[in-house]
Amino acid sequence: MPPARKARTASFRRDDALARALASTRLEGGTLSPEQQALIAAYQAGDITADDVADQTVTAARAPR
User: Fold this and answer.
1) pLDDT value for 49
2) What is the pLDDT of residue 63?
3) Where are the alpha helices (DSSP H) in the chain?
4) Residue 35 vs residues 6, 8, 50, 53, 55: alpha-carbon distances, Å
């Protein structure tokens, strides 16, 4: 008998990547940095576009640590 499948606790539209990412982070017990939270809040408020989010994410990933 195949193993039981996990019950889905939420459903998302295909284009709702932000909601999927947030839910996945929470389900895995992770947390978002204050910078990530501010970026998401600005996007949800309509202050920045998805392209702005992508640009800032790539810039942050390339920054030396």
Assistant:
1) 84
2) 76
3) 17-27, 34-44, 50-62
4) 32, 29, 16, 12, 14
From 25, 24, 4, select the one nearest 12 (Cα to Cα).
Answer: 24
State the virtual CA torsion across 11, 60, 54, 25 in degrees, nearest 10.
0
32's tokens: 């978002």
Q: What are the structure tokens assigned to 50, written together? A: 């998805």
Which residue's entry shows tokens 């008998």? 1
Q: Please measure the distance between the N-terminal and C-terminal CA atoms of the chain and give it in whole angstroms.
A: 48
Tens digits of residue pLDDT in 18-50:
777 777 888 888 888 888 888 888 888 889 887
What DSSP designation does 30 have?
-
